[in-house]
Amino acid sequence: MSVDILLILENIGIASAAVSGFLFAVRKKCDWLGIFIASFLTALGGGILRDMIVGRPIYSFTHYLPGLNVIIMIIFCGVMKFYKVSKHEKIEKKPLFIMSDAIDLVSFSIVGAMVALHYEYNIFGVILLAFCNGAGGGILRDVLLNEIPWMLHTGLYGTISMLVGFIYFFMDKFGATNIYFIMLLFTAGVIFRMFAYYKSWHLPEVRYEK
């Protein structure tokens, strides 16, 4: 596992997740404390779940960079006045929110897969840890803000996270885990997520029939 690549992807994910958490909290009319908690959970919640599962010290609580990253992004969003949104405009439909959410989903999913392989998990463990790391923060944020989890009703969200983990597992098996292949997976995952959202792609629904 390349530590440099992992740190780059994790910090990209944290920065973009902090932005999406900020925007989501603004939508729910939170105060600045609420905005911080929502951003913190979105950005670091998945990593906390990941570390609890693999049984290692929680990275966000043993290193300063993740928390500082979140604080810097909150300040940046405040300075750029990302909280000024028309009352008729839905934040979850803003390109900034969708893009930042896609970036953190894919980057965190790759990080989760990398950590799982480092702990010698099998393919099921890799897929599960990619999902927990990729979607876990958003789920915690939505539960806190009393929302139906974003991943349950939008553009193959959880499916893409699992698919990224699945692909990375086989990339590792074939020795294709250098920076070029990883960035290719990252780019393809973000593009796929954007297409899935705007095209309203979803898995077949199971409808209850009386």
Automatic annotation (TrEMBL):
UniProt key word Acetylation: no
Topology versus the membrane: Multi-pass membrane protein
Pfam families registered for this protein in UniProt: Gly_transporter (PF03458)
Cellular compartments annotated: Cell membrane
Record keywords: Cell membrane, Membrane, Transmembrane, Transmembrane helix
Domain Glycine transporter: 8-71, 100-172
Keyword Nucleotidyltransferase carried by entry: no
Spans through the membrane: 6-25, 32-49, 61-83, 95-117, 123-140, 152-171, 177-198
GO cellular component: plasma membrane
UniProt family annotation: Belongs to the UPF0126 family.
Protein name: Glycine transporter domain-containing protein
Species of provenance: Campylobacter hominis (strain ATCC BAA-381 / DSM 21671 / CCUG 45161 / LMG 19568 / NCTC 13146 / CH001A)
